[in-house]
Amino acid sequence: MLDINHVYKTFNKGTPVQKEALIDLNLHLEEGDFVTIIGGNGAGKSTMLNAVAGVFELDKGHILIDEHDVTKDPEYKRAKYIGRVFQDPLRGTAGDMWIEENLAFALRRGKNRSFKWGISNKEREQFKELLRPLDLGLEDRLDSKVGLLSGGQRQALTLLMATIKKPHLLLLDEHTAALDPKTAKTVLDMTERVVTENHLTTLMVTHNMNDAIKYGNRLIMMDHGHIILDISGEEKKNLKVPDLLAKFEEVSGKEFSNDRMMLAK
After folding, report:
1. Residue 191's closest CA among 95, 99, 84?
2. What is the pLDDT of residues 39-95, one digit of tens each?
3. pLDDT class for 260, splitting at 50, 70, 90?
4. Domain of residue 222, CATH code
5. Does residue 233 lie in a domain region?
6. Percent of the chain having pLDDT more than 90?
């Protein structure tokens, strides 16, 4: 479903702040893989997601989504393959529009535009069925403006919008980092349910080691633009945070020193 082949990306070339963000990066995902991604600041986690999404041109390498070579495609052309949720709950939704209007736009993504606008009763019932399992009461607030929702409610809605058309690939870029722990767990549990029920191929960046271990069927750790650990199967199921730290030190030859991630253990 996803192939990242020998990808390189350097920012600010030839300047004092030149940064080699991705260095000979390689990753292959099978359909239905749910991969969590961890690593310190500057490891290349979000840069890898941006490379897949087409936010910038690559220096070298190729990216294929569902066997389609999208390396030269701009971001808007890749959008038909990709659903994405960002860290900021304000991104991904239109705050001045109603909940049902946001969902309708997501449902009609990729369809031809027309002068006809309106939400059918059938669509409203569909939206209620999608919202009801969240247990947030949003199914009874379809005509509420999204800007009035809490951060957790808005992020849950954004996740539904990103997956309503069942994308080939779902990108989650620390999508619970701005939420309080209780709300973050609610959104993560919802994420796991949506991904599992729809068999979505998913990349999820997180700074929380326990979450990286708990969710998904595969875990990768990045460091300085490389993937240095790739753990799946029974090894991942039996993994503990101290084991993960020990593996990092063994592979990298240094201690893991990211304060944010250490506090999130």
Report:
1. 84
2. 988 899 999 999 999 999 999 999 999 999 999 999 989 988 999 999 988 888 999
3. very low
4. 3.40.50.300
5. yes
6. 70
pLDDT of residue 251: 80
Q: What is the mean pLDDT of the chain?
A: 90
Give the structural domain span for 212: 2-81+167-263
Spatial CB neighbours of 191, under 8 Å, sequence gap ≥ 6: 159, 172, 175, 204, 215
Q: Which residue, 52, 53, 60, is CA-closest to 20?
A: 60
Token digits of residue 150? 């809490």
**Amino acid identity, residue 134?**
L
CA distance 175 to 172: 6
Distance CA 48, CA 9 (A): 9
d(CA 260, CA 40): 9
Record the pTM.
Answer: 0.89
In a domain, 120, yes or no: no
d(CA 36, CA 218): 6
Q: How far apart are the first and last CA of the chain?
A: 31
Continuous segment of H or E residues that includes residue 222? strand 218-223
In a domain, residue 13? The reply is yes
Please say whether the beta carbons of 70 and 64 come within 8 A.
yes
Q: Among residues 44, 53, 2, 40, which one has the least CA distance to residue 24?
A: 44
Say which residue the tokens 């969902």 belong to.
Answer: 103
Q: Domains in the chain: how many in total?
A: 1
Tell me whether residue 108 is in a domain: no
Residue 6's SS3 state is strand
Amino acid found at 70: V
Can you give the C-alpha Rg of the chain in angstroms?
Answer: 19
* Interatomic CA distance for residues 199 and 105, integer angstroms: 23
CA angle 211, 157, 97 (to 5 degrees): 150
